[in-house]
Amino acid sequence: MTAFESTQLAEAGRPDSGERADAPILTFADGQLFRAGLPHRILSGSIHYFRVHPDLWRDRLERLRSLGFNTIDTYIAWNFHQRGPDEADFTGWRDIERFIGLAGELGLDVIVRPGPYICAEWDNGGFPAWLTGLPGLSLRSSDPRYLTEVATWFDELLPRLAPLQAANGGPVVAVQLENEFGSYGDDVAYLRWLHDALIEGGITELLYTADGPTDLMLDGGTLDGVMASATFGSRASQAAELLRSRREGEPFLCAEYWNGWFDHWGEHHHVREPGGSVGVVDDILASGGSVSVYMAHGGTNFGLWSGANHADGVLQPTVTSYDSDAPVSEHGAITEKGRMLRERLLAFTGAVATPVPQPGPVLPARRLEIEAAAPLLPALRGAALTSESSALRTPAPRTFEALRQDAGLVLYRAEPILPAGTSTISIRGLHDRAHVWVDGRLVGVGDEAAAATGFAVTGEGERVRLEILVENQGRINYGPLLGQGKGILGGVQIDRRLVQGWTSLPLPIDLWSEATVGLVASGGADATSVRRTGAEPGFSTARFDVDSPADAFLALPGFAKGFAWVNGFLLGRYWEIGPQLTLYVPAPLLAAGANTITVLELERSGAHLELRAEPELGPTEEYIELFD
């Protein structure tokens, strides 16, 4: 009997085996995985509801089913649901119950990965910024303050997941405990606490841990009595051998098979050759294993949700696209890798193929003329002065965390005396990128290293208006710097003298409504507001009509770095250093008739926008070092 057949026989419920009603539907013995008592292989595809427009959830799930997957798995991003400590939201895009229910309607099993840490190249690894901003809090540990916050979050989340388990007729068949904890720490008491919290919260299905296939990582991340799995991109047989040597009697599960990879700004677009990529799936299956393909459909880091890494003293922000060279592309197309994977999975299971959904419509390519709107600094001054914090003056610049701001920009303002002659303005602890103006004149743009070295200015011994715009380019999602703060964490100096007396003006652009975006872009309520000229940074708008909504790909030739909205929805960041050249515009964001694109450019504005018929994710690079 094939794994597919065993799944079909079990879809109507468990056989009457005399087991208690809440017994897990997935069990194992002697190295074999069973579903409802029948031999089974998990053939899962990773998809994240928070990276897919909710109107496209069913479409993307249908595409994964058509590839031959019998399961999907998803992380749950804590910060996506709880922007503030008392603001848990499970509606609309955040309706995880609806997403899981849709998968169940399509006959797919669901594996849930609630963290609370998820990594996922997602901002702050899924942790809310208000949590990581608590002074002295020790993340991912037995710190009582941290565990109290996790317990409160689980009190919101688990009552929504427990009824969706297979024991209750739902599609959830397994739940992951934490995420690759062995790559971070070795607090076994923390893992045991999480295990007990899940059980007490009503989780009765199979629990498992996931870690890299090394002794170091498995030593720190596994827990006695909980099934262990591995995450990797190659050497499946070696991973299987290691797991079996350490976890006698457990089945081999690759909880993440990295068939592609993500991109940082300034890199090439990472891909894996389809034949070799699918060949590793063959190796996993030949080793008697189950697999989750990460990502099966990557989606998009809409808004400002993309995270960042940190290596060699340099921040590495992740791009807006999370295409990940997946079998189902960012815009839903079945790739060559997807076609090959479908052939292999259907041959392995013997399943009857379901039709592959047809690609959705795409708007034809066109050039969009832009209207120059408000210049950068005057527009942001006007927007920032509406903040409740605008009147609060402090000796030092306030961080994003002190301002209770997750993402976006902060405009800092002070009025120091600038000595006569040439001086240097330097910033200590800049996170992440700053524009510096003196009396409205731009004197420097740079990252942490450039700002620490400083920007040369010439003064006349008089008091000046010093303004610094800081961009949070994404919170670190992996490694020991997880949870690091944003903004100006040190101080600002003119030569050796510290600048004091600051007003810190928050600009949470990811929270702006469509009306706010339009108002700020226009320069405010004043109809006589000045407009930017030429390539001056600031706002631009473009208006266009469509007969009916369809996918589109927005290109910004000549623009340097900034943000783009469509009908008030923040698509995300763009940056001329690439590799990503277009931003994906899913059809549900457009309306029949008139549509508006708004651009906030930080450095150099272009002369027009373009809608292109295909995505352009940049020059490719075979990402092999992780796998060889």
From TrEMBL:
InterPro entries listed in its UniProt record: B-gal_1-like (IPR026283), BetaGal1-like_ABD1 (IPR048912), BetaGal_gal-bd (IPR048913), Galactose-bd-like_sf (IPR008979), GH (IPR017853), Gly_Hdrlase_35_cat (IPR031330), Glyco_hydro_35_CS (IPR019801), Glycoside_Hdrlase_35 (IPR001944)
Substrates-to-products reaction catalysed: Hydrolysis of terminal non-reducing beta-D-galactose residues in beta-D-galactosides
Domain Beta-galactosidase galactose-binding, chain residue ranges per copy: 537-595
Glycoside hydrolase 35 catalytic domain span: 33-343
The keyword Isomerase is assigned to this record: no
Family to which this protein belongs: Belongs to the glycosyl hydrolase 35 family.
Protein name, entry field: Beta-galactosidase
Keywords for this protein: Glycosidase, Hydrolase
UniProt EC number: 3.2.1.23
Top class in the EC scheme: hydrolase
Domain Beta-galactosidase 1-like first all-beta: 397-507
Organism listed in the record: Agromyces humatus
